Structure formats: C-alpha cells, structure tokens
Amino acid sequence: MNSEQIIFYILSFWFVASSLAMIFSRNAVKAVLFLVLAFFSAASIWILLEAEFLAITLILVYVGAVMVLFLFVIKMLNIDKSTLRAKFTGYLSLGLIVAAIIVAEMSLVLGTNQFGLDVFSSPARHGADYSNITVLAMQLYTTYVYPFELAAVLLLIAIIAAITLVHRNETSRKKQSISEQVNVQAKDRVRLVSITLPNKEGK
Amino acid sequence: MELWQAFVQMVHTLIPWLDGTVANILIILIKAIVLVMPLMLVVAYFTYAERKVIGYMQLRIGPNRVGPKGWLQPIADALKLMTKEIIFPTKANIYLFLLAPVLAITPAIAVWAVIPFDEGIYVTNLDISLLYVLAIGSIGVYGIILAGWASNSKYPLLGALRSASLLVSYEIVIGFALVTVVMIAGSVNLNTIVQAQQGGIAHWYFIPLFPMMIIFFISALVETNRAPFDVVEGESEIVGGTHIEYSGMTFAVFFLAEYANMILMATLAVVMFFGGWHSPFEGIPYLQAVFAWVPGIIWLLAKTSFFMFLYLWVRATFPRFRYDQIMHLSWKVFLPITIIWIFVVALMTQFQLAPWF
Amino acid sequence: MNNFIEFDTSSLWAALPEIFLLSAIVVILLLDLFLDKRFKQVTYYLTQLSLLISGLLAFNLIGHPQTIIFSGSFVLDNMASVFKVFMMGATMVAMVYSRHYLRAHSLFRGEYFVLVLLSVLGMMVMISGYSLLTLYLGLEILSLSLYALIAIARERADAIEAALKYFVLGAIASGLLLYGMSMIYGISGSLNISDIASFASSANLASRETLIINFGLVFLVIGIAFKLGAVPFHMWVPDVYQGAPTSVTLLISTAPKIAAVAMLVRILVDGLGSMHAYWSDLFMVLSILSIALGSVVALMQTNIKRLLAYSTISHVGFIMLGFATGTLTGYGAATFYMLVYVLMSLAAFGVIILLNKKGFEVDQISDFKGLSKHSPWFALMMLIIMLSMAGVPPLVGFYSKFFILQQVISAGFITIAVIAVIFAVISAYYYLQIIKSMYFDEADKDITIHASIDMRLILSINAILILAVGLFPDFWMTLALSLF
Lengths: 203, 357, 484
Fold this sequence. Notes:
Mean pLDDT of chain B: 85
Shape of chain C: globular
Order of helices and strands of chain C: HHEEHHHHHHHHHHHHHHHHHH
Helix content of chain C: over 70%
Low-confidence stretches of chain B: none
Number of strands of chain B: 0
Strand content of chain B: under 5%
Oligomer: heterotrimer
Radius of gyration of chain C: 22 Å
Distance between the termini of chain C: 40 Å
Number of domains of chain C: 1
C-alpha cells in the first residue's frame, strides 16, 4: 500500500462517513455542514484523480456559494421535525425494500467484473507539466462549445424563471433613490421661520 | 536557496518511510510554520498600527503606556485574551460554537500557501492558485455563519444573515474583477501573473484595469467586514454581530482571522495589480541599478503595507454604509462595470494593446 | 497537446435557425425590459416574428443532405428540419390561441413569451441533438422553461402544485435518463449517437457489453417514457394538464411531444437501433398499458383538461406502439400519428381556450353545455376534433390509428392490435360525451365568445385541416415515411 492509497482510503472514509452523517443528522444545519464535509472529501478525491480544476470548482461553487445560501435559507425556516419524521417512517419500509432490490440488481450488473481493472486498463498518469485547466479549456471551447453554450442558456432560463416567480410588482416594495438623496438641498428640507421670543416677564 | 535544497535532501535521507511521503509532509509543515509565525506577528502589530494611525487621524495619541511608546501593547492584549474565561451561552450548540472560530482561521491561513513572495519563494506552486485563493477564501464565511447560528442569540443571527448574503454577493464581483487579470495574464497561476507584469510600472495591471483595481479593493473591504462595510458587526445596530457571545481566546481567533484576511487581500491586490515582487524602478536606467540589491520580497511587503494603511485610512474616513446600499453597490454598480470591463479587456487582447500583452 | 478538433465556423449555417432564435431571445428579453406597459403587444408580435423567421430558416434547410457539425453533437437532416417546422408552426398557433387568454388572466408579460421562446429553443436542440449531452441539455432547457411557465400563474394554488409535481417528477426522470446515458457512455466510450450506433451494431459485442447496454437502455426507456407520459410514468400528466394555465397546457400538450419523439428517435432508433429486440418489448408493455389506462380512466373525468390528459396518455400509447414494431414504416406511422395528434390537440385546447373569459376558467365538460345553440360553427369544429380523436373515418384520427395498427399486424402482433382496438372503441365513449353535452344539453351558463378574428380564423383552419388531411392523407403519410 503506497501513500496515495492511504490518502485515498482516508478520504473515502470521510466521504462515506460524512454522507451518512448528513442523512441521519436530525438537525438541518448540521446536515448541511456534513454535506460540506462530503463535498470537501469528494474534491480531494478528484485532486487524486488529477482533476484539480474540477475539485476547486466544486469547492468554489458548492461549498462557497450554494451551501452558504442553503444555510441561509435553513436558518430562516422553522422546520418541524416531528411531522417530517412521521412521513419518513411511514414510507421507510417500502423505500428500504425498493432500495435493497435496486442495490442488489445494480451490484450484479455493475460489479468489478464489468468495469474492473481486468476489463479496462488503468488510466495513464500525466507528467508534472500536465495542466488540467488548459486541457479542459481547450476541449470546452472547441469540441464541446455547443453543449457549453447550451448550459449557459440553461442558466439564463434559471435566472429568468427565478426572477419571474419571485418578483412582485413595483408598488409593493419600498425603495429609495440614492441620487435623489444625495442631491437634496437644505432649502428643500428645512424651513427657517423667525418667531418673536417672549421676553423674560412672560408677556 | 542552495541551503534549503540541501536541507530538503537531508530530511529525505533521514526519513525514508513511505517513498518519502512522511519527509514531504514534514517539509511542508516546516514551510507552514515559517510562514505562519511572522504572519501572526504582523497581525498583532497591525492591530497596534491601526490604533496608532486612527489615533493620529483623530488627533489622539493612541496606545502609549505598555512598553516604550506602547510597543508591547499587542503582547499585553494577547496575554489578556488568553487568560480570560471563555463563556458559553446556556443554550448554545457547544460543538458548532467552538468549530466556528476554527473555520474562520483555517482558511485565512491556508490561503497563504499559494501566495508568491518572491521569484521561487512560496509554500506551493499550484497551477490554479488564483482559483484556490477564491475557493478557500470563500470558506471563511462558514465561521461567521456558524458563530451567528450556534450562539443561539438574536443579534449574532442577524449579523450572520447579513454576512452570508454580503459575502456571496461580493465574491461574484471579486471573481469577475479577477477574471480580467486572468484574461491579460493568460494564466490562473499567481506566479505566472506576477511574472507577466515584469518590466516596470508601465507593465503593471492597475493601468489597463484601473476600475477593476478600485472595485477589487472596495470588495475586499466588504469581504473582510471592514469599515465602512462592517454591517456584520455594526455595533450601533446589532451590538457587535456574530462576536457578541464570544470571549477570551475564541474571540481572539476571530480577530486573528479578520486581520489575516485583511493582509491577504492587500497582498492579493499587490500580486494582481501592482506587480507583486517586482521593483517599481525596473526599466529606469539609473534607479534600476541603484535598487538592484533590494530583494523582491521587500518590494512586495512595502506595497502590501501601503494597502494595509489604506484599510485604516478608509476606516477613519467614511461613515458606515447601510445594508441595502451595500447590496445596491454590488449588484447594480460593480457587477455591470466588471462585465463591461471584461468586454473592454477582450477588445484590448484582440488588438494587442502594448505593453500588457 | 491533445488532438482536439479545430473549431470550424464555415459549417455553422446548419444551425442557423437555433442561432437566430437565441439571438432573437436575447434581443426580446432586453427590449421588453425597456418597453412601456402599454406596448407589451410589441413583445408578442416580435415573438411571433422570430418564430416565423426561425421556422422559415428551418424550412429552407429541408432537403439538405445529412450534415453533422459541432464535433458530432448537432445533426441536420430532413427529420430535424421537418420536425422543427412543425414544432414552430404548432407553437405559433398556440401563441395565437393564447393571446386573449393571457390578457384575460393577466399573464400577458414579457417573461411569458421569452420562456416560450426558450422552450422552443430547447425543443430545437432536442430535435437536432446528436450526442447524449446535447439531447439532455435540450431536454432540460425545455423542461425548465415549462416548469416556470406553469408556475407563472403564482396566485393559483393548483398551478403551483402542478409546477412542483412536474418539477420533482421531471427531475427524477432526468436523473434516470442521465444514469442510463452514463451507462451507455461508460461502455461505448462516446457521447455521440453515431459512435454509439457503430459500437452497438458491431458484430463482436461481448456479452458483458450487451448487458451494460441493456442496463442503460432500461433507464433510457424509463426516462423517455416519463417525458412522453406513458403508463406507469404518467402520474404527472393529469395534474399538470389540469393545474397549468390553459395556454401553457396547450403548449405542453403539443410541441414538446414532437421534441420527445425526436429524442426517442435519436437515442433508440439512430443510436441503439440494433438493440431493437431489447427495447421493443418494453415499448409493447408501456404502450398497451398507456392505451388501456388512458381510455378507461378518462371515462370518469368531469374536467375536460384532465380528460384530454388521459386521452394524451392513450395517444402516446399508440405512438409508442408504432415504434415498438421496429420497422421503418412503423416508425413512419408513429411519426404520422404524432403529427396528427399535435394537430388535434392544438385544436381541442384551442376551443377550450376560446370559451375562456376574464376571471372565469373554462375547464369542465359541463361548460360546453349548449354550445351548439350559441356558436354552431365552433360546436361543429369541436365535433370534428372529438370524432377525429375517437378515430372515426374519414377524419385524420382514423387514418393515423389505422396505419399504426396495420404496421402492428404486419409485424405479427395481432393480439396487441386487437387489444388496442378494443380500448380505442372504449375511449370513443368519452369523446361522444362531450359532443352530447354540446348538442343535446341545455346551457346553464351564458356562453359568449370574445376571441379576436385571427384566432377564430386559425382555429377554423386548424379544425378543417383535420378533415382535409383525413380525406387526403397521402402527402402527409409519404412525408412521415420519407423521414426514415
């Protein structure tokens, strides 16, 4: 067992353990944090696979942005755990049976005898000057430029859809015009009125 | 350099286990310690500088009692914080409450691994170091969010909510601003980016990317929760935000993380826009020869110090922004400008505008 | 450096309709932002115009020999062009029908039109997709726009429910489809349909490889059946049809079916045609179940949108039956059936939408009571549509069913043909029920039709076309057969 294998098994252990912890965690915030840990382990495994760009992107996008917003939302929701769990146990037996059947079938078909190392040769190691990001960029902007553009369209739709569904008409929200606030003059706001003060005797 | 090579060789011969992996880990550890120790010292004296500089700006003297001219003030502060009791709120989630400062400081230090201090002086030369900086830097927000949530107190929660939305918004702006740098340098490796700026001030990227430099610096203020964007703490509105329930060493760790991040952002600004370790006198006939002996790391530190000073200057000058104004600034001002500038840079690249390409 | 394929701009003309449409979408999206509320009409007309131009560009490409561009992920062939023209024509007609509905239900917004255009783009991508990746992306572009379009009536709880159901089930279906695709990719080593086809049809396929292809195939079939709405993956269809705004139901029930059939053809016929023996059995079961359930459950419906949803399920069953035969004429018959179904569905929902008025959603069969007194012309149109859906000669619905059954019998599945006929006869009952309530029941509400002249005209043409194509089906049949 060389050092890479040791690292791989440690990372895989963390990956599996944190995924399980995420599923069985009763607290939504903790579940999100375990998911973050799972993402980290997955990213580290990708680095072992020489896909460092994807690994960093996973952290940047999912850990750095998506999960932060997840936490943001979860903190604001008041999730009633008892009703959730009641539904969960109600479907548990059926779900377990279906899951067991699928796992059994899939492991029959997708075992190492189908996709193992004796069928496929192990991937070649790249040299020290191999740059994952350069290779990806080259492929992405030539061979896969069409799917790449389509993915961009997909994101555009997501933006349009989100704004369409959430945006209310303008009258229902308060907003301010900063330029108006900055340009305001003293004479518009303050009116100086001269009044005669009563004298000391109070007349 | 030769000395270091010899040292590495020696460690490898002394500890040959696991094909040298153990030795490698040891060497990385030594590098990390060599990096982190001075960093912590700089952080300590940065707080002292802050109080002094703002003091003078407000016509006060600042700390001057502990040690000669107050020089031992940071040491005294550190001792005080270390000996203070750590108070746990009754209904706080203790694990997450303690995890939060750890999550704040770890990325703040880990990011330094890829910063190049001079030609060939770095902990690691990662091919995608800029993305690494952005990715690891974005994890720091978990510290604040968790601190807000785990404290089980209302003001920290408000601070955490503000922080989460602010940081995510400004990360996008910073990302876009740095994309322009990447477009010019043609690399996401910080070393390469600095090397591409060789050849005097005219070659530094702050000239073609001036608006991006300004936006980067302002966004850096937001990312580090500094005045005038420190609504996360906002002591006048939410008492101190996420830090309210923290005391003693737990608070000190947050403090360290914040200042380490500030220094990091200043360094990044120098690396990205101000030629990193390059001397400003490069290419000037006489001065170049005079300053040839100065090592690059000195130039880097000098430029970084200027940006660190700028942080303090800004803090002493501007009143705090309101939350919605900061959001407005990000989404409706900075983001459009950065996107337009990406097109401008694309045009510059197309027409090979000298001397940056 | 890797030997990546040079990016070639000289062959981009093959994707001209898509490129034009995407540019038009961006322009309309930006323009709509700056348009005053009074000029929202402009967005509508621009939408129709861009669909028209894009359709004409696609029409212009009919007859070109097969061209594959973008490194094998985009194909231009006759089927693609014909499908695109039909799909865009259907969308344009649907937009004409929807206009006054959108006004009446205050949905006349720029985003609505942009989302419709984006869904059209997704369908075009699916129709021309020649790699698993582009097919999947096209499907997602289509689905995502449709989810948003359903939920656009966000004040209505049933619309939100429909959108959510569609979203969750659609996401599961996409997941299954992706899983199947990953299996096919894993074993064949390529995402391109042409590579997969040559891999799957190679003579020396190891049993291990056949096994994995079959494994992926099952997931692919499930994913496609989900999107088509075949039993037992039909649960979303009735709820979505009922809950969505009628204009969106009209859109969902027509053009996306063309795209789904195109995806089916690309993956299962073009890609895994040599594996036909494995997937045709699955298709047989799915189609018989769909025809049976669609015909029987529809008998109990009182909501006409829900009724048409079940009718769609049974029509989808017939389409899949055509593909199950595994012969080229069978595929042609299925394509013909699909085009006919789109024509009938457009007209049926057109009549429903015609009866809508401000603040009142027409979706019950009882709403059609006494239509023949108030508007004998449109009652006649509805009569034609319903008889055609039931499969009464000489209307086109009869011929489409007839061609399918002919192919099924000639392929040797006589029992299946008999079952299909029995259920088709059962289904005639509920179509006749609508006719009965139009002609023999007294109206209990006031029916007034507010539609504009263009809608009346196109709806009439649409319904008459059902009769006309039924009388002269040769041209359409040869067209459908020529695609394979």
